[in-house]
User: Fold this.
Amino acid sequence: MEKHAHTVRKGIFLNLSLFQFITFVRRGVFYTFMINYLFDLMQTVTYTTLLGTLNMFGSALGQNLLWGRIADKYRLRTKLVIMGESIAAVAYFLAYIIHKSLLNAQANFAAGLSLIFGLSLLEFFWSMSDVGWAALLTDVTTTKTRGGVVGALNFIASVGRMVGITFAGILYMDSEGFRQGTIFYVVIAMLIITTTTMWITSRSTKEASLKEKDAATEATYPPSKATSESTRIYKWFLASLVIIVIGMTCISQVFLLFLPLENGLNASDPQMSLILTAWTFGGMLASLSSGWLADRFGRVKLLFTGFALGILTPLLYGAASTFETMALVYGLNGVAFWIIQTVGFAFAGDLIPEDKRGRLLSRYNTVMALSWGPAGLLVGGPMADFQIQSLGLPRYTAYANTFYASAAIVTLGTLLFTAKVATSKTKEAKF
Assistant:
């Protein structure tokens, strides 16, 4: 029976890997040039930045109000993913039809708005897939293996994203890929593939749970006192993570504006591309290694490593005098973010009791979704604009000060994590 269960688990991991790869290929294909396309239609930066923010709010509302509760109450995992992917396939087609009709009517601004609000509404329903995926991944891993598995899947996600970005450059064709629907149809095809993959996974998961029901029941539910303590620690973990994620990602847009400044790094387009690619490669290396290291040496030690790099790297942006140096520093920032992403998920999985995984993982997903755009729109952007417009500071100085503020915010989150999480003792988490 043990050998059979191992074979089933291996099959589930392969299916999850395929799902993860195709999912991030799809995201790379669709979202790489979406901001450029929206700006081409609407000719306003403010409205184009709304996409990531409204997507985040749609996802957060769906996960926390509905899907997390449903996942726990009805014990749904793969069915939520299958429903979410299926709804997304239909919604992408409808979004394109509405968008195309507005383009034909020469209503470009309205066509852009239809995509922003349509994709945000879609995210509300699609987020059921995120909940199901996170809960399923936690279900099929253990404290001893979770970090390594999550790291491997995040590495696969990074490879998929790079493949997707490559195809996006081919399919975009100066916005015709969106206008003619080519990108929409490619994405819909990939959604059909991921739905099929998860349907196969659902059968494997059912078989595994039948074989291991007794052992899982005994091992999964901890004593009530330990459960209460781990839930308390989890809440403080999320509180500190909110501050850290906001601090690290609030400068994402500012950083892109900082690179080409003439009185600064004055990076060319190819040099900017290399710098941004370094972040992705740093993240890939971190994803592949940090989960395994966390399983071996403990979650908190690896998280502190990520926090330390998250504090250090923004302080060095202004000091980088060549694009090679900047690429190295920004690559380390990618390492920091993906350590936190990978080890943070494993740490959350260790703390959350099985009967609350849907609801509590929804909160974790919401915190990490702050990196989509809200942090930059609500914190980093206004902070830089205030210094330039109200204080009259040069752009270089204002942007550098914003980087310093980023490091300070991450420091505050790290101090909260140290005081409320790292110093706590619980039998449910691996420290």
Notes: Residues 152 and 409 are 30 Å apart (CA to CA). Confidence is low (pLDDT under 50) at residues 209-224, 425-431. Residues 108-139 form the longest helix (32 residues). The chain has two domains: 15-210, 221-431.
